Amino acid sequence: MLRRRRKFLEEGYNCALCQDGTEETIEHLFISCSSSNCRWFVLGIFWNDAGNIFEKLSTAKQAFPFAFFMEVVMIGAWCIWKERNSLIFNGKAPKLSTWKNDFKLEVCSHLCRIKTSLHDSISS
Which of 5, 46, 67, 116 has the smallest C-beta neighbourhood within 10 Å, fewest atoms? Predict the structure, then answer.
């Protein structure tokens, strides 16, 4: 395992998920990365190419059909982060189906923090 972490560290600061040679910045990992874009697509979130990260969030929020946009973004980003770390530290290859299952489990564990009136629409 130590060898695997060293390998990623020696390769520089490039994104581990998409491995297209792009530097892993916050914006890349959570918005521009092709791997994370697949995850957002599943959730119905589409990022605008123009503007800074705040403008992208604002535009995506306006297009999102439900009132719980930030909850979905925060849990989705957390699951992307865990998937990235699982690849780097445990060598576990990213899979969309695994990510979706992890996302659903995270949502269920956060329902107590989310308005009761939103539970039915979140569950669907």
Answer: 116
Question: 33-37 long-range contacts, Cβ below 8 Å, gap at least 24?
Answer: 35/80, 35/94, 36/80
Q: Structure pTM? A: 0.84
- Retrieve residue 41's tokens: 């697509």
Residues of the domain holding 26: 2-123
Closest by Cα among 84, 90, 83 to 106: 83
CA 75 to chain centre: 8
Looking at the structure of the chain, the number of domains it has is 1
pLDDT digits (tens, 9 = 90+) for 69-118: 998 999 999 999 999 999 999 999 999 999 999 999 999 887 787 778 77
Number of Cβ atoms within 10 Å of the Cβ of 32: 16
Provide the 3-class DSSP secondary structure of residue 25. Answer: coil
The answer to whether the CB of 114 falls within 8 A of the CB of 122 is yes
Of the candidates 122, 93, 94, 120, the one whose C-alpha atom is nearest the C-alpha of residue 106 is: 122
